[in-house]
Amino acid sequence: MESTFSSPAEAALQREAGAAGVLTPLADLDRVYELERVAGFVRDLECQRVALQFPDQLLGDAGPVAARLEETTGSKMFILGDTAYGSCCVDVLGAEQAGAQALVHFGPACLSPPARPLPVAFVLGQRSVHLELCAKAFEAQNPDPKGPVVLLSEPACAHALEALATLLRPRYLDLLVSSPALPLPVGSCSPEPEPLERFGRRFPLAPGRCLEEYAPQPSGGFFRPVLAPCELEAACNPAWPPSGLAPYLTHYADLLPGSPFHVPLPPPDSELWDTPDVSLITGELRPPPAWKPSNDPGCLALTLRPQLELAESSPAASFLSSRSWQGLQPRLGQTPATGAVSGRRGIAIAYEDEGGS
């Protein structure tokens, strides 16, 4: 059943590596990749061999980062390759093959614990943010200065939240900056069963799966197209919020009446139905079909479908029926019963009753 919705296993071996990203200036390597924190991680563990795991878009910076870490710590650095498939997970096997005593994972990560005990440090990076352009785009999308505003960001851009909030506070009265989602290092605290039992609601996750697999993904990565309920609602309901503002719902019950996310269909004469559609064949915009209500009672009458007869034509059957002899037929009850008689003996070239020639 899994092969019906996901790609075959052979696709991982035939997948090509992604295009290399933009190289980071050498002066920004320490800030972007947090090399000071990584060097402290290596020194504290006193590791002599450390594996560095980079995704495809960051492989261009792998060489300078490894060289600078070797110069700072004196340890041997190994750059792991062949991580294009599942680069968000820690490649423990590749680190063990290199004999590494620790691993540093750079780039986006699902933060799943490694399958085998190995010290791991996650470096999510610090992406550069153009604060002025971001503030202008934010003000264009949120023109109401009295509405509550919450600033959220991915981990790579969390360093710019306070600076962005400084630019927006003079305009927005009620502004709240989100705190880091992970204030403690991953794996520093063990789960305690007693506090967990006090929560009545539980969220089951399949063990061994990455959290990124539960996130919205384009259906082109699957062997069969996958359509989420909210995507179907967006295609059929013109009143559904645009992309980026609409919630991503995976349960069909959330779209039914009574749910807080339910959006009723607009009336037939609404202007929302006049939005042009994109043809999947030509890729061009096409106007919606004209809809006009009609009071003619004749248009509501059902038309009976004519009875259609199925005609089959077989040249071989027609030729066989036209022949006088159509093969051996049993003709049960149509021939008289006679006793068994002795037939001819011998071989076809010379029977006994024919005599010698």
Number of helices: 11
| Chain oligomer state | single chain
Write the CATH architecture name of one domain. Answer: 3-Layer(aba) Sandwich
Classify the beta-strand content into a percent band.
5-15%
Lateral arrangement of strands in the main beta sheet: 2-1-3-4
Number of strands: 10
- The level 1 CATH classification of one domain is Alpha Beta
CATH T-level topology of one domain = Rossmann fold
Quickly give the structural class: alpha/beta
Account of the 3D structure:
The strands form four sheets. The chain has a four-stranded parallel sheet with strand order 2-1-3-4. A two-stranded parallel sheet has the order 5-6. Helix 4 (35-45) crosses helix 5 (62-73) and helix 7 packs across helix 8 (161-168). Mean pLDDT is 75; it is low at 1-5, 181-190 and 199-209. Among the domains are: 11-123, Diphthamide synthesis DPH1/DPH2 domain 1 (Rossmann fold, 3-Layer(aba) Sandwich); 131-177. The chain is α/β, with parallel strands linked by helices and 357 residues long. A hairpin with a 2-residue loop joins strand 9 and strand 10. It has helices at 2-5, 11-14, 29-32, 35-45, 62-73, 92-97, 131-141, 161-168, 193-197, 229-236, 315-322, and strands spanning 49-53, 76-80, 102-106, 120-123, 149-151, 175-177, 277-278, 285-286, 346-347, 350-351.
Blueprint (SSEs and pairs):
Blueprint: H1 2-5, H2 11-14, H3 29-32, H4 35-45, E1 49-53, H5 62-73, E2 76-80, H6 92-97, E3 102-106, E4 120-123, H7 131-141, E5 149-151, H8 161-168, E6 175-177, H9 193-197, H10 229-236, E7 277-278, E8 285-286, H11 315-322, E9 346-347, E10 350-351
Parallel strand pairs: 1-2, 1-3, 3-4, 5-6
Antiparallel strand pairs: 7-8, 9-10
